[in-house]
Amino acid sequence: EQNAHHTTDRPTVSGPFEWERVGGFEDIVYEKGAAGTNTAGIARVTINRPEVRNAFRPTTVTEMIAAIDDARDDPSVGVFVLTGAGDQAFCAGGDQRIRGDHGYKEVEGGAETGTQRLNVLDFQTRIRKMPKPVIAAVNGWAVGGGHVLHVVCDLTIASDNARFMQTGPKVGSFDAGYGTAHLARIVGQKKAREIWFLCRPYSAQEALDMGLVNTVVPLADLERETVQWSREILANSNIAIRMIKAAANADEDGGAGLQELAGHATMLFYMTEEGQEGRNAYLERRPPDFDADGYRP
Ligand code: S0N
């Protein structure tokens, strides 16, 4: 019997979409959906270096980390979207012009600081640990470390002009972390090894066929489709989604994944009367009464 409150109808959306820009960023555009509109609840980062196919430098990554940390803490945000500026590239990986001998050179105010970083790994970890879904809206090339970014995101919506490629073995780099192991979980061991060993480009349709992306839409529909998926997610239980994401991560992430899942369980326990009884009894200097609701089966 159909539950009167349950519907399989999708809340379809149409543009134009309103975004409010968060200031203070140089390499990215960080926006939040306007309250009361279709974009409410969505935070979006656009890598904004189209002149280098949105390749990232340490500053780009530092800014993306600041944005995702902000989105994590903002209770009005339920979905985080990562995309690239223009119609050529999502992200072409690390900026090879400032690649030093042990990392990417940090530049501040036009001058090198002397520090070399591989801080994209810190951003990957943030995406992974973000308790809210992260969607990659891939609008062109996703290459090298840029390809790994979409691999680490929970979902990928690709435009029909998107192309996917690892280049590490051609340019002297590799991502032997999520970029290999998680990729293999997604597309299978044989395909992951092919992607890395041969460094071929794959079309959006090929990516869809191998399960590397969730859907492919015309480039002109990419924003609308991303908002559509976000709205469908936002209509569902954020705690259920948080637990599902953490469980899927825990299956791969060992102790770090267990810590994440357990952290969410602790949050839920704090929200119960039983959890709060422990705190209250301590503060009231009395023995706790933990079994007021009985012992559940
Ligand atoms: C993206 C490609 C295929 C696009 O080709 P297209 O459309 O023909 O454009 P181009 O004419 O080639 O490029 C336009 C302009 O953009 C510059 N440019 C492009 N990519 C980069 C880049 N990565 N760095 C710097 N500049 C870039 C071009 O030079 C050109 O400039 P102008 O107009 O001045 O000539 C094509 O561009 C391409 O193949 N790009 C290189 C892709 C690549 O090899 N990326 C690096 C791969 N390695 C990493 O990303 C390492 C990442 C990392 O940091 C890491 C570290 C530790 C652990 C893990 C990772 C990780 O992988 O995440």
From TrEMBL:
Q: Report the EC number(s), separated by commas if there are several.
A: 4.1.3.36
Which InterPro entries does the UniProt entry name for this protein? Answer: ClpP/crotonase-like_dom_sf, DHNA-CoA_synthase_MenB, Enoyl-CoA_hyd/isom_CS, Enoyl-CoA_hydra/iso, Enoyl-CoA_hydra_C
Site (Important for catalysis) found at Y104, Y270
**Keywords per UniProt:** Lyase, Menaquinone biosynthesis
Which terms does the record give in the GO molecular function aspect? 1,4-dihydroxy-2-naphthoyl-CoA synthase activity
Sites binding hydrogencarbonate sit at Q166, T167, G168
Provide the binding site for substrate.
53, 92-96, 104, 141-145, 167, 173, 270
Pathway as given in its UniProt record:
Quinol/quinone metabolism; 1,4-dihydroxy-2-naphthoate biosynthesis; 1,4-dihydroxy-2-naphthoate from chorismate: step 6/7; Quinol/quinone metabolism; menaquinone biosynthesis
Cofactor(s) needed, names only, are: hydrogencarbonate
Catalytic activities = 2-succinylbenzoyl-CoA + H(+) = 1,4-dihydroxy-2-naphthoyl-CoA + H2O
* Broad EC category: lyase
Family the UniProt entry places it in? Belongs to the enoyl-CoA hydratase/isomerase family. MenB subfamily.
UniProt cross-references to NCBIfam families, sorted A to Z: menB, PRK07396.1
Known function: Converts o-succinylbenzoyl-CoA (OSB-CoA) to 1,4-dihydroxy-2-naphthoyl-CoA (DHNA-CoA).
Protein name, entry field: 1,4-dihydroxy-2-naphthoyl-CoA synthase
* This protein's encoding gene: menB
